[in-house]
Specification:
Layout: E1 13-16, H1 20-31, E2 36-39, E3 50-54, H2 55-63, H3 67-70, E4 75-77, E5 79-84, E6 95-98, E7 108-112, H4 113-125, E8 130-133, E9 137-142, E10 147-151, E11 156-159, E12 161-164, H5 171-175, E13 180-196, E14 203-209, E15 212-219, E16 223-230, H6 232-240, H7 243-253, E17 261-277, E18 281-282, E19 285-287, E20 293-294, H8 302-322, H9 330-359, H10 363-378, H11 380-391
Parallel strand pairs: 1-2, 1-12, 2-8, 5-14, 12-19
Antiparallel strand pairs: 3-7, 4-7, 5-6, 9-10, 10-11, 13-16, 13-17, 14-15, 15-16, 17-20, 18-19
Helix pairs in contact: 1-4, 1-8, 8-9, 10-11
EC number: 1.14.13.-
GO biological process, one term: ubiquinone biosynthetic process
Pathway: Cofactor biosynthesis; ubiquinone biosynthesis
């Protein structure tokens, strides 16, 4: 009998999905000398969506060499204002958070999603040890030594570790048998970019309304991005308005805080929902980004969590290689599983609880939320703790997000 040759790995890691999280992870791994394949096409539609990247996420982008080219296209978030607009009997005063209170020039930066993806894609093209394949992944299977990813062109790629960063409907996650829990809200998020006659003064303002948050986040110049969470019926009404009438509706909802408004570009509309996974790793696979968690667009947690996935998984892979471990083994992936479970579940519960209290016409819930806003306004140590926790978990940050380059606690 002729002995069959064992399959040969095409890479050390295959990253499936070329969104922001997949791109950033592939770049971060390849820069450490990890032979990496990135699968998927880049989509850069300018649909009015932006992302507010918090300080730890900025540190990671800076560490991989992406931030220098992006900073001039991003607006700093120096102040964050919360306004109770629920018209309840117990209405607390607005609360403003200032980045200087926790030693930062800005909490983070707001940038158009398409701009971020384009810059990361260009950096990926220049990164050694990173091979890009535009074909789509159609199936995943895990063997004893290697995982296999089938492509839509009929070819197969093999690696010790596959990372599913292919979005909320991840085929890789499903094939790996990682279960999910999904839920929805009776809400739709309307997105757009608008110019206005008054200066936003680097202040993000979030109005808490009975239908959900109405948020205006600064962009460069006299421009802001909008996330208006409302009922599906209201979203349909807004979609039917012409551009001038839509801008006027936004202006009125914002209480003319930024003056006269004008729509720039297109509008988006996203049904509000969430997704959580039963586990973050499986046999020779890890999930990251929206394949691991989906959030309503509240509190800017979604992509910032995805970037923390990137930083944690990068550390797990590099540490496993240093120790001589099989990087797709349960032992190698255990730190990633532990690290992401607590962080993601805490964020999921807090965002879900906030959104549901806004929807509940329930006096005790209104009183509790109002009392919390008053406490944040009056109690400095509590306010600073909440600001720090909003940026990142109060635990050891992964190396690319720390100020020292080592896995240090978040000291702000």
């Amino acid at each position: 009998m002729t002995k069959r040759n064992a399959p040969v790995a095409d890479a050390e890691v295959i990253v499936v999905g070329a969104g922001p999280a997949g791109l950033a992870l592939a770049i971060a791994l390849a820069q450490e000398g990890v032979r990496t394949v990135l699968l998927g096409e880049v989509r850069t539609a300018r649909d009015g969506r932006t992302v507010a990247l918090f300080d730890p996420s900025i540190r990671l982008l800076d560490a991989i060499g992406a931030w220098h080219g992006l900073q001039m296209q991003a607006a700093p978030l120096v102040h964050m204002r919360l306004v109770d607009a629920t018209d309840n009997l117990f209405r607390p005063p607005p609360v403003t958070f200032n980045a200087g209170e926790i030693g930062l020039d800005a909490f983070g930066y707001n940038i158009e999603n398409a701009t971020l993806v384009s810059a990361l894609s260009a950096l990926a093209d220049r990164t050694a040890k990173l091979v890009r394949v535009a074909a789509s992944a159609t199936a995943f299977s895990a063997g004893h030594d290697l995982a296999e990813v089938s492509l839509d062109d009929g070819s197969i790629l093999r690696a010790p570790l596959v990372v599913a960063a292919d979005g909320r409907n991840s085929r890789m996650r499903a094939d790996a048998g990682i279960e999910t829990r999904e839920w929805s809200y009776p809400q739709t998020a309307v997105t757009a970019i608008l110019s206005h006659s008054r200066d936003h003064r680097d202040t993000s303002t979030e109005f808490h309304t009975r239908s959900g948050p109405f948020t205006l986040v600064p962009l460069l110049g006299l421009r802001s991005s909008l996330v208006w969470v409302c009922s599906p019926h209201e979203a349909e009404r807004l979609a039917a308005l012409d551009d001038e009438s839509f801008a006027l509706a936004v202006e009125r909802q914002a209480r003319s805080m930024l003056g006269r408004m004008r729509l720039e570009g297109g509008r988006g509309s996203v049904p509000m929902s969430g997704l959580a996974v039963s586990r973050f790793t499986g046999n020779r696979i890890a999930v990251a980004g929206e394949a691991a968690h989906v959030f309503p667009p509240i509190g800017a947690q979604g992509l910032n969590l995805g970037i923390r996935d990137v930083a944690n998984l990068r550390d797990a892979v590099i540490d496993a290689r240093t120790r001589g471990l099989d990087i797709g083994s349960p032992e190698a992936l255990a730190p990633y599983e532990r690290g992401r479970r607590l962080d993601v579940r805490m964020r999921t519960r807090s965002v879900d609880a906030l959104n549901r209290t806004l929807l509940a016409h329930f006096l005790p819930a209104d009183l509790l939320r109002g009392a919390g806003l008053i406490a944040l306004d009056l109690i400095g140590p509590l306010r600073r703790f909440v600001m720090r926790e909003g940026l990142a978990p109060h635990v050891r940050l992964p190396r690319l997000m720390s100020r020292t380059g080592a896995a240090d606690p978040l000291l702000l």
